Please model this.
Amino acid sequence: MTSVFKRFLVFSVVFASFFALANASENTPRYAYRGLMIDCSRHFWPKEFLMKQMDAMAMLQMNKLHLHLTDAGGWRLEIKAFPRLTSHAAWRTQEDWTQWWVRGDRRYCTAEDEGAYGGFYTQGDIKEIVAYAEKLGIDVIPEIEMPGHSEEVLFAYPELSCTGEPYGCSDLCIGSEATFQFVEQVLDEVLQLFPSKLIHIGGDEAGRQKWTTCDRCQQRMKAENLHSTAELQAWFTRRVGQFLEGRGRRLMGWDEIMEGADANDGNYVVMAWRGVEKAVEAARRGFDVVLTPSPQYYLDYYQDAPQSQPLAMGDYNPLEQAWAFSSLLDSLSKMPFSGRILGVQGNLWTEMIATPAHAEYMIYPRLMAVAEAGPGGKGDDFERFRRRAANFCDTLRQKGYHPFDLSVEIGQRLEAREPLWHEGVGKPVKYLSPYHEKYCAQGDSTLTDGRFGGWSYNDGRWQGFISRERMDVVVDMLEPTALRNVSVSFMQFTGPEIYAPAAFIVSISDDGEHFTELSRQTFEVDLSESYTIRNLTWEGASMGRYVRVQARSGAYGGWIFADEIVVNGGKI
Model:
């Protein structure tokens, strides 16, 4: 071998090693935790479906599969110590979630009952799922919801409730030692099946009402010197956390587990779903955090114009919004507590998702945006990322998946893309009934700011009303004005109980005190329209300075959401 060739060979090896290291550095994950949550309670998913999604996760370098195994929709895991959890609590009387939960009787049944819907994983199924995951480098994290969201448990074992009766409440009785015997026996079997260091206990949205009147819970609070039901739940979480730590595991829960927690609870991992603010709070308080914010990482939300999409549970969350969240992660990485952020996760809640094809349609390609936030992205602008996402979807289709087709994406509501002008723009608005502080949009200027809302009720342009009178406002035109029409757009979105008005009333006044009614329109609220934006209008000819607009709810109650009061007319 000549010296020249030797030098060339050495150079080639060094160059190849350098290139490989550089490429590896580009693809080195920013976070150790890169996950997908699948809700198996509201609808049961066969083990083959879960394995198929793990194949796609591996393509995206994702390494955590979080299974939401228990909730009111059904208990999905065989527990040998408590067989009624699967013989009874794994089955309900209807498949359709809305018919069962929203409009139905929320009853459970056995597998033998006519029309029974449900299913569960045997312990053998779980062993297969975990073994398959290990081959792909994926950790399967079980979630056993407690102490709230436990309706199905309390049907199977009503003695674990505060009332001792099924269908009475959704929270376990924390005052009873039988509750802890149940929890510990269930978790003992869970730990045998799942090697994951992290064990998710839920902890979210506990009602806590029954605890205030339960003698056992009140005695527990007195004995432990607890002053609120939030502290009682924190005490419960602490006890379960200590149980898990004693077995070499670590408690994970939704961000509600911070309520009432103290400095001694810092070993928890907080899954921050109620916005970045909760993630920042958790990190500052010394908790490790997984970011899974709504709406950016909620995969059950609409990903395109809602009227064009299959039924979804939540708000509007297009691919671009999920992708854009990575820029916020860049800013979080510069903060002192950034080391507390373990990673990111996309959540597929399945109230409105009943088939594997629909589930995949909702997961992909948005999961790709979550996945690339985990590795730190590739420095794309959105259009480049979108092209890569479209290519990824093509690959998935060839492999038998059912992703959303980006080539037919409609995008944001047309009316929301540009400002508009009308006679009412900039005019002051007096609120005779208040907007809700959570959905205040731009405050008092919202309804006459010249901007329509988009598909999302939470986009800062839609204003929400839930007070008894719902929406009742007066626009001051500042001087007598010839009025030709007054119109308002209202959203109906039945998932979060936002309904179109049952009554729309327009009145005018010269003094702002005494009003003359111009129009009163009444409607039947049609719940079959799961999402719509309806424009309601008065047209005519009248004169006045003050324009009063009222929108009232019907029999279903719920929210009224409006985005702009359009007033057209002419100056005298």
